[in-house]
Amino acid sequence: MPELRKDPITGRWVIVSTDRARRPSDFVRERTPPPAASRICPFCPGMETKTPPEILAYRESGAPNTPGWSLRVVANKFPALRVEGELNKRGEGLYDRMNGVGAHEVIIETPEHGLTLSEMSEKHVADVFFAFRDRMIDLRRDVRLRYVIAFKNHGAAAGATLEHPHSQLIALPVVPKRVQEELEGSLRYYSFRERCIYCDILQQEAQTRERIVFESDHFIVIAPFASRFPFEIWIVPRRHNAHFEASEPAVIQNLGWVVRTILRKLDKALEQPPYNFMLHTAPLQDGPLDHYHWHLEVIPKLTKVAGFEWGTGFYINPTPPEEAAQFLLEVGLP
């Protein structure tokens, strides 16, 4: 029988449609082919003048904005928000406006055009997250900015417009509604029980072991109880920490191994699916938060959001998270 499941953090309801339960082979998949060779890719070495100047680079040799880098961060050439200007908040009757102040940056993950994140070395994947950390620490100095979302769109079906491996970072002058819902739900739980709800989720999942995909020294990887999408994955640090950018180097290094491992599992189980990942962390200007816990959400693009979801806020997930976790567990570690 189908189930309604309530997310214990946000209060969002999900329909787990067990009557149409699907294993990986049941989905019509849009396989993401490896990037084709390109002579005109603006993210490839030797094309540095085709992008805005480097904001950050990890390099073994060479001057800024020349070849020799292993990772580059540049401003998005077509930014959603711009760092220049004042917020100029204002109201027009019941409507609110402010200028589109923020930052929009591209993390060019590797100089190799044909390499996907799952194919990179553990160190190289970790460097992507070190770049997120370094940029968040720098952007935090700008008191106009309230929140930074780091994310990756892999494959055209997941929203990627360029093949060269890259991820993005957008700094906002407001806290996004979805993150605000997590913060408020976590605070309600903490006010009642004086414990972090994410820490309690990890403890319960470790006891039942129904939805654990795998574990590492610093992380537990789970299919969340109220998964919105088939094979949705959360990567949650074992040790409580609200701010990703405050993570110790050993944690971020281990995150490189964990992300590489889960992406390889998804590649093997779902035949290189398009996917999105999003890093949820505490607002930039907030101090330590006992009630919130940063985490990474990984969502393969296997189903489409349609009228029911948009109209109600409910999601319909045809694959119970227990089955998804078991299947990925059986895939084994690559």
Overview of this protein structure:
With 334 residues, the chain is of the alpha+beta class. The protein has one domain (3-79, 100-331): HIT-like (HIT family, subunit A, 2-Layer Sandwich), CATH 3.30.428. 26% of the residues lie in helices and 23% in strands. The protein has 6 helices and 15 strands. It has helices at 122-139, 177-193, 197-208, 249-270, 307-312, 321-331; strands at 3-6, 13-16, 54-59, 69-75, 90-92, 95-97, 103-108, 147-154, 166-172, 212-215, 219-222, 233-237, 275-280, 295-300, 315-317. The strands form 3 sheets. A 10-stranded antiparallel beta sheet has the order 3-4-7-9-8-13-14-12-11-10, sandwiched between helices. Strands 1-2-15 form a 3-stranded mixed beta sheet. It has a two-stranded antiparallel sheet with strand order 5-6. Strand 1 and strand 2 (13-16) form a beta hairpin. Helix 1 crosses helix 4. The protein is globular and about 60 Å long.
Secondary structure elements and their pairing?
Elements: E1 3-6, E2 13-16, E3 54-59, E4 69-75, E5 90-92, E6 95-97, E7 103-108, H1 122-139, E8 147-154, E9 166-172, H2 177-193, H3 197-208, E10 212-215, E11 219-222, E12 233-237, H4 249-270, E13 275-280, E14 295-300, H5 307-312, E15 315-317, H6 321-331
Parallel strand pairs: 2-15
Antiparallel strand pairs: 1-2, 3-4, 4-7, 5-6, 7-9, 8-9, 8-13, 10-11, 11-12, 12-14, 13-14
Helix pairs in contact: 1-4
Q: Strand tally, please? A: 15
The CATH topology: HIT family, subunit A
Described by the principal axes of the CA atoms, the overall outline is globular
Using only CA atoms, what is the Rg? 20 Å
Quote the beta fraction: 15-25%
Largest sheet: 10 strands, antiparallel
Structural class, please? alpha+beta
CATH architecture: 2-Layer Sandwich
Distance between the termini: 35 Å
Report the top-level CATH class: Alpha Beta
Helical element count?
A: 6
Largest sheet, order of strands side by side?
Answer: 3-4-7-9-8-13-14-12-11-10
Order of helices and strands: EEEEEEEHEEHHEEEHEEHEH
Count up the domains: 1
* Helix content class: 25-40%
